[in-house]
Amino acid sequence: AAKRGGRNAYAIFDPTMSMSVLEEAQQRADLEHALEHDEFRVLYQPVVDMHTQRLTAVEALVRWQHPRDGLLGPYHFIAGAEANGLIVPLGRWVLRQACAQLARWRAERPEAAGLKVNVNLSARQFQYAGLVDDVSAALADAGLDAASLTLEITESMLMADIEAAKETLHALRRLGVRLAIDDFGTGYSSLSYLKQLPVDVIKIDKTFVDEVHIDEDDVALVDAVAGLGQALKMQTVAEGIETDEQWETLRRIGIDHGQGYLFGRPAEPADIAALLSAETLSDPQHV
Ligand code: C2E
Ligand code: MG
Ligand code: MG
Ligand code: MG
């Protein structure tokens, strides 16, 4: 029957197909509604100096305060927003929010003078022709210097179209923003391309951190990335540090910065302001 009716009949009569089309349309409408009605929020997770344990940066992490389902993490909606394109306006909103928030902390607290903010970019945002203008406008409107902003991209985004990625990275670099490779080690970076890219920071994925205190193979891998960072003059950040043992091991290896529940979960702006004057963030009271 599908054959006789051609493509349209397939779209109409296949129940799984029409369900997913409906669901997609519904999700798009929900996300659009949420953007218009200010249902998104940004939380900020501490990034600390591995030696002093002082706060050096925060990563902006988006949440959806859903009127019925409660607080939703990115896994509930980022992929959908990426598929339907709404990630571009949503990502722009997060970027503008994060820049404005850093400017606010700085206005309120002298200790925030050196604080930086990290913002994740999605693949679609990274390919979007208006990205550089969006970033430049977000910085200007917040009155923020470009060097205070670090944009996080993943290896797959870089390797999908290396020439285009290189051009975008250089345009962002000309603005003066810093660039980080997120989830490093989970993708397929080519070392020869990595060398040519204007990247400032390598964020080592949590999967290498989880057992680094007990698994010699993970020690060797993280050690290799630390060496890579040193050779390419890129800073290293370890993600997902939860225990003192992991922190000790990573510090010994020579990782520069750390992020994880040990130092703090994603938090409201007011909670971050309180951490600015903290002597150390490895105290479990802050977690
Ligand atoms: P990511 O950029 O790698 O961010 C780190 C994720 O690891 C965050 O999850 C953070 O809460 C979590 N995390 C940090 N430390 C620990 C730890 O010690 N233990 C554990 N179990 N988890 C830890 P979150 O906030 O759920 O975000 C997940 C991902 O969603 C992010 O991974 C990022 O890829 C994406 N994402 C978040 N916000 C945005 C955004 O504004 N735009 C885009 N495009 N993607 C975003
Ligand atoms: Mg990230
Ligand atoms: Mg990551
Ligand atoms: Mg991730």
Describe this structure in words.
The chain is an alpha/beta fold and 287 residues long. It is 50% helix and 19% strand. An 8-stranded mixed β-barrel has the order 1-2-4-5-6-7-8-9, surrounded by 4 helices. Strand 6, helix 9 and strand 7 (201-204) form a beta-alpha-beta unit. The structure holds ligand C2E and magnesium ion (3 copies). Ligand C2E binds next to strand 2, helix 4 and strand 6.
Topology of helices and strands:
Elements: H1 2-13, H2 15-36, E1 40-49, E2 55-66, E3 70-72, H3 78-84, H4 87-108, E4 116-120, H5 123-127, H6 131-142, E5 149-154, H7 155-160, H8 162-175, E6 178-184, H9 191-196, E7 201-204, H10 206-209, H11 216-231, E8 235-238, H12 244-253, E9 257-259, H13 269-275
Parallel strand pairs: 2-4, 4-5, 5-6, 6-7, 7-8, 8-9
Antiparallel strand pairs: 1-2, 1-9, 2-3
The structure holds ligand C2E and magnesium ion (3 copies).
Ligand C2E is lined by residues 45, 61-62, 73-74, 78, 91, 94, 120-122, 152, 182-183, 239-242, 259-261, 266.
